[in-house]
Structures are given as C-alpha cells and as structure tokens.
Amino acid sequence: MRRYLPSLSALHAFEAAARYMNFTRAADDLGLTQSGISRQIRNLEEFLGATLFHRSGPRLVLTETGANYYRNLALTLDRLEEISIDAVRGRSVDSSLMIGTHPTLASRWLPERLGAFIGSYPDIPLEVMPAMPSTDFETTQLDVAILRGVGTWLHARSIELFPEVLAVVASPALIPPGSKLDPLQFAEFPLLQNAGRPSLWLNWLRLAKLSYSGRIQGTRFAHHEMIINAAIHGLGLAVVPTFYIRQEVANGQLHMPFGEPVQSDDSYYLVYPERKFHNPNVIVFRDWLLRSLRKA
Question: Which SUPFAM superfamilies does the entry link to (predicted)?
C-alpha cells in the first residue's frame, strides 16, 4: 500500500516556518521565496485537513495541532538525517557524542580539554557544533551541551560547572599597563559591544556597584572571539569572561585597568536532554568532565 505521507518539501517548509515562526526567515533558510513557503504549508494543511498556523495580529502562532505536529516532525526529521549520515559514513550516529556549545568556548576552552578525553576514550567519536542557551532539548540532536545560564532548561538536566566571572580588558596599546584609572573612566575610551549579549556593559556596572547614567555605545561584534581579537588590536575596551582570556592576560596582550573581575549572575552548565539520561556516552563524558574540573 502507498504510504500516507505528505511531500518532503512541504515538511521541510513547515518545520522551518515553525522553528523560526516566520515565513520570510524560513524561506531564506531553505532558499525559497516567501510565497513558496506559504504554498507548501497550504498544501500540507490541505493534505492533513488541519490548520497548522494562525495569525495573532502581526505574529505567527502554531495551532495546538500544529505544535504537536512540529514537535514530532522535528524528531522524525532529525532521525531521518541521522540514518542518512549513517549511510554516507558507514557508522551509526549513536556511536558518537555530539557536543554543542558557544563558538568562543568551542574554540578557546573546550579543545585544550578534549585531548585528554580522546586519549582516554578513543572509541567515542566526537562532533562539536554551535549551540545557544535557547536550544530546544526536546528536539535537539545534541547529546550534551555546555551553556551559560541560570541552570534551568526545559526537557533537560543540568550540572553547574563553574560561575561566570567578567572583567573589563584593554590592550597595552590602548591603555598602558600600570595606569591607575577610576572605573568610571571607562567611558573615556572606545567600547566594544557584544551583539549576542548587548547588556554586558550594564551588567558589569551593576555587578561592580558603579553608578553611571551616560550612553554606552561602540563597535558591535557577533561573539566573544571577535571581541577578544578586537581588544587585542586596541580597538576598544571589552567586557569578557575571564576564563576565555587567561593566556592573553598572562602574556600581556590584555590587562585589566579598571579593577578586579566580578562574578556575574550566570554560570556555565553541562546540559543534556532528559531523554538521553541513560545514554552511555553521555554518562562517560559527564563523569569525565566533572572529574577533570575537580582536578583543575
């Protein structure tokens, strides 16, 4: 018998639209036009005999049927992707460990530790991918993630690894080392902004118990890796987590002219989907990471 299945194109269009809650962004993601996305979703709704979206003013909202369909479809598409990858590379995704984290953590903090893990567990292939605090752990294909937050993610378990500590740093080319500056003098220098964390300067002021009412503006960069490099080149002051810049501070590329670091309200956590609680590779990585941090 012929299977009762809608077209894969329609499923792709619906999954992207539900993920972004925006037809235009879904169209950009899939390389289609907005009208093409609308047409595919209309065809899918006609096939299912159900309404998947409705409008609430300017916002796009999933119906209850649409929300349930999206939740199950995302898992199904993830699984379909996994078995397709298995066919290409000749091994099961289940044998590997997929780790998600912030781009800067993935490039600065994680690699220096993964060598020890690979040496101890050479039979567990690793894949490192970008992940955000907004990761949906009900549908994600990640096995574990290392994320900044307050420790609460839906459909996931989390273990605190270490608190976040923030510092204002500068290049010696911008401010000579040994300069004695009042913390509020930060406003006299160009500032670097984190587009992903636009309130970092305000957070630093609050945590440092400084009263400042002026404007805070400056060149914006996408994430900490870009900001650190910009600070090293003297483009401005930056607020960054101290564990990212230990080497740069130690070798004098950056220094802290406005006082000691301050602990933020966030910490970094090991997070993994509730459904993967018994996954043996997750257990091995979790226990190894906690042991290695205790020894550090």
Answer: Periplasmic binding protein-like II (SSF53850), Winged helix' DNA-binding domain (SSF46785)
